[in-house]
Amino acid sequence: MLKIRLRRQGATHSPFYRVVVSDSLKTPSNATVEQIGHYDPKKNPADVKIDRARVDYWVSKGAQLSPTVKSLLKKNKTA
Fold this sequence. Notes:
Blueprint: E1 2-11, E2 14-23, E3 34-40, E4 47-50, H1 52-60, E5 64-65, H2 67-75
Parallel strand pairs: 1-5
Antiparallel strand pairs: 1-2, 2-3, 3-4
C-alpha cells in the first residue's frame, strides 16, 4: 500500500521535510514514488507547500495520508 508521509532531511537540529508518496512497508528514506511537496518547520511561520492536485490523485489511487500530513493539509487550506 502507498502512503503519503514526511521524509526527514536536513542537518542535525535543522530539520527539513519532503512530502513523498512511498511504499508503506519501506522506510521513508528508501526510494519514493513521487515527491509532492515540502515542509520547513524552522521558518516563522512554517513553510508548507503541498501539491493538492497530486495528493487528490494519489488518494484516488488508494494511497493513505499519514496523520501528520493530514494535519498539515488541514491547517494549510491554500497549500
